[in-house]
User: Fold Uroporphyrinogen decarboxylase from Microlunatus parietis.
Amino acid sequence: MSPTESEFLAACRRRQTGVPVWFMRQAGRSLPEYHQVRAGIGMLESCARPDLVTEITLQPVRRYGVDAAIYYSDIMVPLKAIGIDLEIVSGTGPVIAEPIRSRADLDRLRPLEPADVSYVSEAVTQLVRELGRTPLIGFAGAPFTLASYLIEGGPSKDYAKTKALMVSEPALWDVLCTRLADLSAMFLRVQIEAGASAIQLFDSWAGSLSAADYERSVLPHSARVFTQLAEFDVPRIHFGVGTGELLRLFGEAGADVVGVDWRVPLAEASRRIGPDYAVQGNLDPALLSAPWPVLADRVRAVITSGAAAPGHIFNLGHGVPPTADPAVLGRIVDLVHAEGPALRATAPAFAGTN
Assistant:
């Protein structure tokens, strides 16, 4: 770790000395100051206002002292920017007015131009100036997750329409996901060129797939996103939920850091992924309401398990729940910073793969 490199970036590059910590969905949801500034403002509108994006992104950095900021946005933003008719409905999630079901429907997916999201460049530039040495993480949705919303028309429990199209019309699927990969790559490029220090590709729902289907029909498109960003010297994080059987493939898609949910211990996850990747995670968000002594021991266990990996960024195994107590998150940050270096230093070293 160089004197000018942040702990977060050092961990991404597998040369950390401490344990950095940030939380997915830390910008918003559970923070009272977030609800105050967003009162009466829709989600997509708030994402298009650089002043709000800057303020909301900074709120958890001020409150918790986390080691990285996550850009406040939504994976639907680039789709909205190219004219897809969608809304984010409170309590439901993204709702697509006209789901994609045929080749003709693909005509609505035009390429994303930087000018379509000029407010993103403006907000990232402001944030980098305000954050100083604290890194900013940019993010986008991965092709499979975006495709699932477009095909299903909204959230789904089984992704039946998505999987059926994927296996029955592979040519249509490939064209759809190629366009979505290019869309996500451009959205990430805009953030990087404006100053983001790292990026995270969310394939939130890829865990619904078998490893064989993921490798055949999804991995090439996620890899296409990462390949288009290879010219930039920024760490690339890849995350999904329920991806225990996909962890090795998530790394192979082109990540530097593989996000791990709470279902697989980090030591085992790292063994599956291999020595060329850092890991991120993986405290179960449901445990945030547990008594502090119990929760603190779980935090320590995550750090100890993560020490078996060549790099570890402490995080939750998914996003911060809306009901989370901000004070508890603050205590977790303090514990990770205070005890993380010693726990990592005394834990067993990386044990390799099969």
